[in-house]
């Protein structure tokens, strides 16, 4: 049994154990044999979304009332673990489940028309959604976005640019953070920020270019521009000016999700390294026969267990309704450090084989580097935690 498999079987319910096993089997069957091909292509095939939906995995964590498969954050966490256990990757999870950050605001706002137009078809795998917040002039500082949306009758006229947008080149719609309260002014704060769904094909909305990255190769990433783009006012998510609060409410889930990616990638890298160390012989003995190697594997396991256990605890507290903003930051930081350390050691243990492009540990090594940047950079989240914990 894998590192994660043992952990979930011990701490999870029988239903979640079965869910993880289903996600693992699906990944081994429908993903792993093709993943390098998709990495080289720079994107996932659209039909994979429908296939995943048919397997009952795409809508986990979304209520059945909006077209999801039901369950909560702990269930979606379990799916992510199973995908990594089956040979998936961070780029795969980011691209295949981009709706995890594109749809929650729409589903929570409760507009029946928006749910029917955007949420249901995406959870069925027929459409792809994306979330656009980051801009060329700023990343984690959501309050300083400069993309504007000026009301003009039954439409908003959108002008501005977004960058580093996951699934942006394939998206059928983009949940976009805009400033409806006038142009950005330094020191003004988060007032006037709204969320607006911009559909592909809208005149004035352009995918400027596909961005090439260090990792997450199978996850397409785009730079977007809006030039006099007229968007129906019916596409406003929630009330005008409520965008910052909506975004902030989803940050905890996003950061826990990235923490899961971190320890899950580390656990997979550890399993691969442990198997390699028992198979690979040097100087007449398996690598695992050497004390320095065994101790390294034990230390890798310790880090995985700590990150996994803490992230599970924070996720459970969030599902129970507790405020865990600081704890989610700490979980993400713990998992990021674990992922970077364990994947580094896995490549070291594989030696030249681990340095080869296309090897699974090499992919994880590249992919996990993004985790300390996306969803709030390590430094930004450390400063936020300091304020929340009363250290500032």
UniProtKB/TrEMBL annotation:
<dbReference type="InterPro" id="IPR037069">
    <property type="entry name" value="AcylCoA_DH/ox_N_sf"/>
</dbReference>
<feature type="domain" description="Acyl-CoA dehydrogenase/oxidase C-terminal">
    <location>
        <begin position="241"/>
        <end position="387"/>
    </location>
</feature>
<dbReference type="Pfam" id="PF02770">
    <property type="entry name" value="Acyl-CoA_dh_M"/>
</dbReference>
<dbReference type="InterPro" id="IPR013786">
    <property type="entry name" value="AcylCoA_DH/ox_N"/>
</dbReference>
<comment type="similarity">
    <text>Belongs to the acyl-CoA dehydrogenase family.</text>
</comment>
<keyword id="KW-0274">FAD</keyword>
<protein>
    <submittedName>
        <fullName>Acyl-CoA dehydrogenase family protein</fullName>
    </submittedName>
</protein>
<dbReference type="InterPro" id="IPR050741">
    <property type="entry name" value="Acyl-CoA_dehydrogenase"/>
</dbReference>
<dbReference type="InterPro" id="IPR006091">
    <property type="entry name" value="Acyl-CoA_Oxase/DH_mid-dom"/>
</dbReference>
<dbReference type="Pfam" id="PF02771">
    <property type="entry name" value="Acyl-CoA_dh_N"/>
</dbReference>
<feature type="domain" description="Acyl-CoA oxidase/dehydrogenase middle">
    <location>
        <begin position="131"/>
        <end position="229"/>
    </location>
</feature>
<dbReference type="InterPro" id="IPR009100">
    <property type="entry name" value="AcylCoA_DH/oxidase_NM_dom_sf"/>
</dbReference>
<dbReference type="InterPro" id="IPR009075">
    <property type="entry name" value="AcylCo_DH/oxidase_C"/>
</dbReference>
<dbReference type="Pfam" id="PF00441">
    <property type="entry name" value="Acyl-CoA_dh_1"/>
</dbReference>
<dbReference type="InterPro" id="IPR046373">
    <property type="entry name" value="Acyl-CoA_Oxase/DH_mid-dom_sf"/>
</dbReference>
<keyword id="KW-0285">Flavoprotein</keyword>
<keyword id="KW-0560">Oxidoreductase</keyword>
<dbReference type="InterPro" id="IPR036250">
    <property type="entry name" value="AcylCo_DH-like_C"/>
</dbReference>
<dbReference type="InterPro" id="IPR006089">
    <property type="entry name" value="Acyl-CoA_DH_CS"/>
</dbReference>
<feature type="domain" description="Acyl-CoA dehydrogenase/oxidase N-terminal">
    <location>
        <begin position="13"/>
        <end position="125"/>
    </location>
</feature>
């Amino acid at each position: 049994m894998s590192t994660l498999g043992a952990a979930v079987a011990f701490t999870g319910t029988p239903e979640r154990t079965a869910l993880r096993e289903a996600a693992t089997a699906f990944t081994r069957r429908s993903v792993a044999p093709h993943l390098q091909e998709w990495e080289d292509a720079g994107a996932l095939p659209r039909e994979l979304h429908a296939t995943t939906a048919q397997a009952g995995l795409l809508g986990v964590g979304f209520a059945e009332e909006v077209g999801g498969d039901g369950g909560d954050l702990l269930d979606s966490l379990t799916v992510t673990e199973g995908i990594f256990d089956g040979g998936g990757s961070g780029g795969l999870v980011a691209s295949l489940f981009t709706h995890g950050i594109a749809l929650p605001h729409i589903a929570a706002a409760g507009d029946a028309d928006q749910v029917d137009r955007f949420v249901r078809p995406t959870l069925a795998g027929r459409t792809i959604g994306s979330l656009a917040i980051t801009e060329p002039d700023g990343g984690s500082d959501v309050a300083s976005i400069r993309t504007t949306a000026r009301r003009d009758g039954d439409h908003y006229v959108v002008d501005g640019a977004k960058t580093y947008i996951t699934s942006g080149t394939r998206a059928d719609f983009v949940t976009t953070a805009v400033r409806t309260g006038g142009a950005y002014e330094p020191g003004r704060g988060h007032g006037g920020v709204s969320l607006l769904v911009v559909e592909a094909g809208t005149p004035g909305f352009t995918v400027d270019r596909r961005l090439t990255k260090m990792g997450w190769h199978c996850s397409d990433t785009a730079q977007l521009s809006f030039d006099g783009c007229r968007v129906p006012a019916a596409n406003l998510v929630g009330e005008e000016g409520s965008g910052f609060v909506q975004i902030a409410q989803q940050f905890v889930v996003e950061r826990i999700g990235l923490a899961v990616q971190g320890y899950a990638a580390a656990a997979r890298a550890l399993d691969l390294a442990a198997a390699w160390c028992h198979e690979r012989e040097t100087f007449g003995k398996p690598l695992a026969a050497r004390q320095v190697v065994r101790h390294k594997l034990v230390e890798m396991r310790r880090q995985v267990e700590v990150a996994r256990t803490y992230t599970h605890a924070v996720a459970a507290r969030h599902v129970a309704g507790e405020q865990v903003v600081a704890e989610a930051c700490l979980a993400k930081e713990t998992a990021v450090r674990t992922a970077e350390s364990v994947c580094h050691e896995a490549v070291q243990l594989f030696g030249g084989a681990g340095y080869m492009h296309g090897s699974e540990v090499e992919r994880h090594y590249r992919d996990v580097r993004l985790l300390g940047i996306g969803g709030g950079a390590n430094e930004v989240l450390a400063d936020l935690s300091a304020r929340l914990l009363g250290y500032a």
